[in-house]
Amino acid sequence: MHLSYLLQLLGGLCLLASSLALADTQPSHRVANQAELRVDHVRQTVLDILSYTRWPVEPAVLRMCVVGPTEYADGLFQISHQANGRVVSVRRYSAGDPLIPAQCDVLYLGTLTEEERLTLFARLREYAILSVSEQGGANAANSVFCLRVSDDRVRFNVNLDALALSGVKVHPAVLKLGRSGGLP
Fold this sequence. Notes:
The chain is an alpha/beta fold. The protein has seven helices and eight strands.
């Protein structure tokens, strides 16, 4: 690897770490309420994760699909570009939509029934799709990332088995953050 790439990567990882800890330093009076703050932190965390994710064939437009009822996805619909300039398209789909496998590079999952989740992931087997669940428990099964949202920060866990099946690659430093549950 080139030194400039490594320095850029290190700088980006520092940005990811600082954005995950942002809630600790941002006064709550700057945001109308805690719900808006959580939505903003989820948006930034998802953007940061995407910055360190690589697809076998990098999409010119990153297609993010929001599936199921969600609590924190409103901020995702405000995303138009990644930090690297790549255009991001965000659309909402129902869990049973047959277009999901061919139309999505990223799945942001809300609450799904077990049957919906199992059926959806069975259809994704041949596709390189990163999955992020905003809830834990059964709703996070099969997802690569599971967010843990609180008033002061967003943490995440990584399911390495789901990552291996997803067909995408995530930078090891992000995986390390996820194994430790995010930043303290």
